[in-house]
Amino acid sequence: xxxxxxxxxxxxxxxxxxxxxxxxxxxxxxxxxxxxxxxxxxxxxxxxxxxxxxxxxxxxxxxxxxxxxxxxxxxxxxxxxxxxxxxxxxxxxxxxxxxxxxxxxxxxxxxxxxxxxxxxxxxxxxxxxxxxxxxxxxxxxxxxxxxxxxxxxxxxxxxxxxxxxxxxxxxxxxxxxxxxxxxxxxxxxxxxxxxxxxxxxxxxxxxxxxxxxxxxxxxxxxxxxxxxxxxxxxxxxxxxxxxxxxxxxxxxxxxxxxxxxxxxxxxxxx
Length: 270
Hints:
Layout: E1 4-5, H1 8-18, E2 28-39, E3 42-50, E4 61-62, E5 65-67, E6 79-80, H2 84-91, H3 95-113, E7 118-119, H4 132-142, H5 148-154, E8 158-160, E9 165-171, E10 180-188, E11 202-208, H6 210-218, H7 226-235, H8 241-246, E12 253-254, E13 257-261, E14 264-268
Parallel strand pairs: 2-10, 6-8, 9-12
Antiparallel strand pairs: 1-14, 2-3, 2-5, 3-4, 3-11, 7-8, 9-10, 13-14
Helix pairs in contact: 2-3, 6-7
């Protein structure tokens, strides 16, 4: 049990929380999607580098994702694939929350990359999301003047829940000032769609093999948070996207915790 050493400010906060002097902030429900494509040497993942000015995970390379919007629970959202109840069973979540998590996964992916996991019917997927009209809708979703249900209805689309694969469940450690209760999904980039750098919270986007990303992180050239590092470590074991999608997954909740080891506060996952 070695873990990650904590900076002084977080170490002090960890001691206060462990002693019961400070209460941890509640974790907000969120969804993250690992976008995959087949590269010449195996699976590649889509990563965004968060701007250095961001209050949470500044400068970190992350997958598209974000917090649940209250309107993500709207039952009017056109839906194809496993039901919210089935997703709830997978993620140990009640049905209303499960619906919101899947909707947030689709919505946030479109907001942050321009990739849309939806189609005109349960068997098709949108092949092109470029153009002024799509961009206007994306911006309206971001500023919350448009909800996912209205966006899909306006374009005659259904959400393709079957294009998402459940991958993991991470909760931000109690020592953090901003906390998220995040379900991780995996999905393949739909044929014809092109992710793009749409600005906002990120200042750089890349497609990269998991092993290459991990190597850069170990060299200190990029910053990865523990959930991203662990997810990439798992993905690096697969030779192709098909193998990733076929891999059995047991969703176990992981919340790293701060412990004192030989006088030093460290963050551990075990």
